[in-house]
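Reproducibility note. Readers wishing to regenerate the assembly model reported in the main text can use the exact inputs given here. Chain order matters: entities are listed in the order in which they were concatenated for prediction.
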Amino acid sequence: MGSRLIGYGSYLPEKVMTNQDFEKIMDTTDEWIVQRTGMHQRHFAAENETVVDMAAVAAGRALENAGLTIDDIDMVVVATTSSELDFPSVGVQVLGRLGATRNQPAFDVRGACTGYIYALHCARAFFAAGMHQRIMLIGAEKMTRFLDFDDRSTAVLFGDGAGALIFEHSSSGYSGIIDTVVMADGREFDMLHGTPDHKISMNGPETYKKAVTLMPDAANYIMEHAGITASNVDWIIPHQANLRIIQSGAQRLGFPLEKIVVTVDRHANTSGASGVLALSYALDNGIIKKGQLILYPAFGSGLTWGAALIRV
Ligand code: ACO
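Running the prediction on these inputs yields the following structure tokens for the assembly.
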């Protein structure tokens, strides 16, 4: 059972936080941030703006893009780790915001920065089981909820935003979500995790080392599984954590940098929203064209990592 991408949308909060803005509030420099991360700016949600607010706008835009209403959607899966409320799920709240009346299921997936690959994995499984006709996949994060402006090594790395994709079942043999692979290693908990007081504990250099091997490993695994090589892939959309990680991964895969979608310079790391936002951005700006093959590697807290192969 195949699927087809039929709609996409995204949302970025109005407030832009530049590296120069950080220079004013902490001991850092634009030069350090650009050199170590490739980031120039990121979007920060307003204080009263929630993950659900952002998710609902992105979802509304995706529905508009697809020419559908929420009641045309059979299931909503949201990748998020930063919801303000422990319950109900962001997915159910989005259904409420958009006025759904069909009692369709909705739930959240907590996979940190790999969350959207875990969500794609779920969507692929539901399509394969023939259980749903249309699935909306949302990635939405308010990472600023976790930022500690006394910790310069993590505060500059993250941003807020949301993206949404709508996939429809296809019996024509066309495959939107061609393949997915997700992995986790709980023994690496200490490397990167949230704390009980809602902060980020991260060993940056160790996380970096893992990221530059795990993302290419997942990418290679999924290409091998699909029987293709990097030359068959039109674009790679890596998790947008750090430009140096992205460049190093591309080098390991022998993939030209011009074929890598990069948004980390403007959006920074939006965790579970990152890949969905980047795909939406690339489609909106005509960078990625209909029918192209996208390789989607990601990694994050857990550790978790994985990859997806998508034809848009
Ligand atoms: N401005 C200026 N100096 C800084 C800053 C800053 N914002 N942050 C740290 N420094 C300093 C450190 O204090 C240190 O100074 P010292 O040598 O005097 O002690 C120096 O810069 C070097 O610090 P390192 O941590 O070794 O710097 P590194 O080159 O490793 O870069 C970075 C740090 C950018 C965090 C890098 O390690 C990285 O990107 N790691 C991966 C992080 C990541 O991707 N995290 C997200 C994972 S996804 C998820 O699930 C959330």
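We highlight two features of this model. Residues 28, 32-33, 36-37, 112-113, 152-153, 156, 192, 202, 204-205, 207-208, 211, 241-242, 269, 271, 300-301 surround acetyl coenzyme *A (CB under 6 Å). The two ends are 16 Å apart (CA to CA).
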